[in-house]
Amino acid sequence: MTKFNFSKRVPADGTDAVGVILKAAADPKIISFAGGLPAPELFPVKAMKEAVDQVFAERGQEVMQYGAAKGVTALRELVLQRVKEKENVTGQLDNVLMTTGSEQALDLVGKAFVNPGDTVLVEQPTYLCALDVFKSYGANFVGVEMDEAGMKMDALEEALKAHPEAKLVYTVPNFQNPTGRTMALKRREKLAELAAKYDVYVLEDNPYGEIRFKGQHVPAVKSFDKTGHVFYMGTFSKTLAPGFRLGWVVADEAVVNKLTVLKQSADLHTDNLAQYAVVEFLKHNDLDAHVKQISDLYGQRKALMTEGLEKYFPQGVKYTDPEGGMFLWVEVPGVEDTVELFKQCLEHNVAFVPGDPFYAGDPQPGAFRLNYSNAQADQIKAGMKHLGEALQDERELTAKPSYD
After folding, report:
1. Is residue 253 over pLDDT 50?
2. Where are the domains of the chain?
3. 3-state DSSP call for residue 139?
4. pTM for the model
5. Which CATH architecture does the domain made up of 45-284 adopt?
């Protein structure tokens, strides 16, 4: 059998712990809170089909031809208009690059800025796929402590002083994946200030920001950026459909130009049909009304999940209380092995994502992520009962005296 000599970027066999977990959770008997999927029943299928039909009728040959690497001009203009309206982020057309999902934006920024051995500062915990991307470019990670108001700026400044070579700060300030926390306004202002002071770039990832079901909107970190140190990422994956793979970066023109060159090496350009279809859809449909439907449903599902937490979970369990997005974070004191806890929960026909892969450093035992966006009400009610029973069983097993 041939032994392939893969590059150092390729993960070693057996390192895809999340893939194994999600595969196990895909069993039809399992109620899974493990994925990060939007609710498919809210995808605007009929309206999008009409949009696609119209695009083919008007631009059939154009959408089937090669396109511009930066993306369709009309869509970039709409993105600029939307980020100004929603996030107080201003810019010109040359500040916007359309990407094949926000995952490609992460990859392009990693490729453009992270050399082997460079330090990347991340929230502790943080989005696991971002860790995977930056790790593939040889990053060294430094985790920055969070609390309920997001990344702590005093901890970040201490990390910047201790690591003056730091290249990048990565943050998900709104309804963070995995914790659901939102960064406070003053901390956003301070983050932009620290970026300029220590000449470090900030990658602001905002996939969930519009999915708010309570509380007050907080403007983007990028809206406080006066020096171009903040790169803002967004996506249509959570507000329209993830299958279209449409994301974007808003950044200084020099940054966008470099990312565009790297994108040309990766895929030449993002899918023309998807871009034009969204332009057409937005001409005839109210995206804000659609996003409100999503937010209302997720708010109901999150409320059901927290009711289940209060009703069925053992005393002492802590959990976050997100005001939007798709996730909440649970911490179970006394649990040493969260992956083992996951296996115990599978026996109760319920699944979550263990917290370990979300940490750049040592993980916090007993922490895990729950997703509420892609579960029906009856699944949430039953699943939280099963999960509570599994946690209770684990507590009893841990507390059982040993007679060895």
Report:
1. yes
2. 17-43+289-395, 45-284
3. coil
4. 0.94
5. 3-Layer(aba) Sandwich (3.40)
